[in-house]
Amino acid sequence: MSHALASPPGGSGGAHPIEFEGTVKKYGSRTVLNGLNFSVPAGSIVGLLGPNGAGKTTAMRILLGLQRPTAGTVRIMGHEPGTSAYGKELKKVGSILEAPPLYKNVSPRDNLAIRAAAIGQKIGRHEIDSLIAHVGLEGRGGDDVGKFSLGMRQRIGLALAMIGEPNIVILDEPTNGMDPAGAVDIRKLVTALPQRGATALVCTHRLAEVEHMCDYVVVLREGELVTQGSLEDILAAASSAFGHRVEVAPHEVELALRVLSPLALGEITVSGGVIETTQTLPDPSAISHLLADAGIYLRALESHRATLEDAFLELTQEAGR
Question: What is the pTM of this model?
Answer without folding.
Answer: 0.78
